[in-house]
Design brief:
The chain has 414 residues and is an all-alpha fold. The protein is built from 13 helices and no strands. Helix 1 crosses helix 3 and helix 4 runs antiparallel to helix 5.
Length: 414
Amino acid sequence: MADADYQSNLRLLRNFLDEFRSVLAEKTSCHIPRLALNYYRSSLSLLCQYPNKKLATKAWIRRINWFILSNVALIFLTMVFAFPESKNVIDMGDDMVWLVGMGLVGTKVFYVHLRCNDIDEIIWDLDYYNREVRPHNSDDEVLEWQRLCYLAESGFFINCFFLVNFLSAVICLQPLVGQEEKLPFHSIWPFHWHRADLHPKTYWFLYVWLSVTSHHNLMSILMVDMVGICTFIQTALNLKVLCIEIKRLGEMRAVNDAKFREEFYRVIRYHQHIIKLVDKVNTTFNGSFNAQLMASFAMVSISTFETMVAASVDPKMALKFAFLMVVAFVQLSTWCVAGTLVYSQSLEVAQAAFEMNDWHTKTPEIQKDLGFVIMRSQKPLIYMAKPFLPFTLGTYMLVLKNCYRLLALLRESM
């Protein structure tokens, strides 16, 4: 699907719910139609945020993509210019949250613009097992794990899709509830276009434009995050399947050494492929990973602090900051939980190799190679934002601890 055109991506998304229901209806193991990552890549293509080799051949897609990137940068600048107008701590916190969020969106979509061809290669590499190791796989245990992973990814995406649309509706409609006529977020435009009393028509044009941009940004960040998180989950799944393959090697009884060696080396190549894949993902998503960690720390700290400040002054704003705090927590925890799955499952490979049946009856050459597999698997595979910390639950707890320290310091200084 990396070479799919715009119409092919549209057809794929139209079949998403039918394919999801067909897999969900199967009570036993079954072949999944495709990796769920293909749906999110197609969504990015339809949002004109994915100018890979195929789509970049169309001039209109390139122009729209650059227009979207320029629009995000322009709106970010109008928000920066509006920041000095903050009247109090609560308004300043609100502006800072929006700046952090818009900066995160801009960074991630720009990295997708730069790295979309590398992402195509990663999605292709994640399907290595079905394509190279076992093209006609009939192992019920492997098929069941693939089915559960497909359902978990797709189910999580469906829930996030409704949550993001609800958040978009709140952002776009919330200013209409208040007494003052405001834009969806605080920004300053030339010639006072943002003031409804001076330029009512321009104000409403900007209101609609910023609302559409906000919704597009939220959908884009959802799809980009789904690509990243599902890459983590698919890596953990590949490591789980690798453990199953190692266990199956120990169950091979009535085979000669040549046949066993052939299967054993196939499994070793699979393990090496996963190791190289993790390195490729860390390189491709490094800038996006760094932006995610910094933005998560800032969002959690600011929204928590502003919730405490606004609780006794403006309950409405306190509720808004509390909701943003929950969103930031959920986003960071999802990344860290997915990263922890890869970390822990990579260590299980060594245990699976150690527990392989009758390994001591194999030739010295195979025993030596098995020892190398165990030795390499004792070094965990980690997705990390260099030079910062890896995406694990340990990092999650460290971020929360530092946020608490920062909040305590700010609280004491007030």
